[in-house]
Amino acid sequence: MPDWLDAFPRVALAHTPTPLEPLDRLSEVLGGPRLWIKRDDCTGLATGGNKTRKLEFLIADALANHAHAVITFGAIQSNHARQTAAACAKVGLDCHLILTRAVAWDHPEYENNANVLLDDLLGARIHRCDPSDAKATTQAVQQELGSAGKSIYLIPTGGSNPLGALGYVRCARELLEQSAALGFHPNRVVHATSSGGTQAGLMVGMAEAGGVDSVLGINVYDPNHEAMEERVRHLARAVRELGSTVDASALEPEIDHRYLGSGYGQPTSDTTEAIRQLAELEGIVVDPVYSGKALGGLIRRIRAGEESTNSNVIFVHTGGVVVQSVYRTAFERPTA
Ligand SMILES: Cc1ncc(COP(=O)(O)O)c(C=O)c1O
Questions:
Q1: Which of 27, 78, 160, 291 is catalytic?
Q2: Using one digit for the tens of pLDDT, what is the confidence trace for 10-49?
Q3: Is the CB of 84 under 6 A from ligand 1?
């Protein structure tokens, strides 16, 4: 039977398969399940991250639609924006980034360094604005490009539409091949969830293969829990409608909302502790906005006895480490 995913054009942007590695020292210290890490921080595109897999499908669609320019959206330190800028540079599309001041983070270089520096080096045009001005700013950019005769391809925040989420259907298949080759059954896959495309794609891919008992998103973004769940549910069902035969009733999102703290982009003490613990025990660095906050949540769950000690849990490292330098103050230790 032909593979339904083959109906969608894809440009090769990601270094795949990304490694799946055991976290032996962290597993031992925590005394819970056997932990593994899927290194999607290593997808390779301008330092990589989870958006690269989505962009393989989105950029292919932009090219199929004869676009000259891509417009996309994110917070100032958006990892999605940086990977989109890199993807556009690689295939020769103009890239416009509408970056909103959506996160109150007090660091003198927050607006210009880290991801924003890379956006600039990658040749993207950056349009900074307050969230309330995003619509007007987008319209002005569309008008400018339209008058220059350029056709535009819009990519939503986080690359999270059904087409983008196909990148994580592929990732689910990749993970199952790797875990089978390593000789274990993954009981749960855990990752940071915000715009929802990563989780929606993983849910469809895993449900199709029946390969994992649970895809658990840790909410790092939305204080409205119902809205977050509805976004993922809706996306997963829309992904399914692109051609999967999986039963829609199998697509109920599982999201743990307990670790958001004071909000998106605000690391908690669990976040910074998890970042240090993983770095010191495994030599792997996660970020304070997404992957570190999700890992902090997973570690709390293990400490509370919520993860079976007889299980295998895969944590997906979705990237984001570029932002670390402008979060320096979150890691300051009290001086003796
Ligand atoms: C590093 C990182 N991890 C996780 C996510 C969440 O992925 P999604 O937006 O698909 O839920 C993002 C999204 O911006 C991200 O940049």
A1: 78
A2: 999 999 999 999 999 999 999 999 999 999 999 999 999 9
A3: no
Q: Which of the 8 DSSP states describes residue 71?
A: E
Domain residues of the chain, as ranges?
Answer: 4-49+160-331, 51-159
Q: Do 49 and 318 touch, CB atoms closer than 8 A?
A: yes
By residue count, the chain amounts to 336
Give the integer Cα–Cα distance in Å for 321 and 336: 28
Shared fold status for 4-49+160-331 and 51-159 = yes
Structure tokens at 293: 């906050």
CATH code of the region 4-49+160-331: 3.40.50.1100
**pTM of the predicted model, to two decimals?**
0.98
> Tell me: the pLDDT tens digits for 321-333?
999 999 999 998 7
Q: Whose CA is nearest to atom 13 of ligand 1?
A: 158
Residue 333, CA distances (Å) to 272, 288, 330 in order? 11, 16, 9
Assess whether the C-beta atom of 265 lies below 6 angstroms from ligand 1: no
Are the C-beta atoms of 123 and 51 separated by less than 8 Å?
Answer: no
Helix axes 162-182, 225-241, angle to 10 degrees: 80
Other beta carbons within 10 Å of 134:
17
Written as six digits, the tokens of 287 are: 């970020």
Q: How far apart are CA 287 and CA 196, in angstroms?
A: 18
78 is catalytic: yes
The answer to whether 116 and 99 have CB atoms below 8 angstroms apart is yes
Tokens of 65: 């639609």
* Alpha carbons 203 and 234: distance in angstroms, whole number: 12
Using most ligand atoms within 8 A of CB, pick from 57, 155, 191, 198 the residue to mutate for ligand 1.
Answer: 198
- Cα radius of gyration rounded to whole Å, the chain: 19
CATH code: domain 51-159 is 3.40.50.1100
Q: How far from each other are the two terminal CA atoms of the chain, in whole angstroms? A: 66
As to burial, measured by CB atoms within 10 angstroms (0-12 exposed, 13-18 middle, 19+ buried), residue 215 is: buried
Give the H or E element holding residue 20.
strand 20-22
Instruction: Show the tokens assigned to 332.
Output: 């300051």
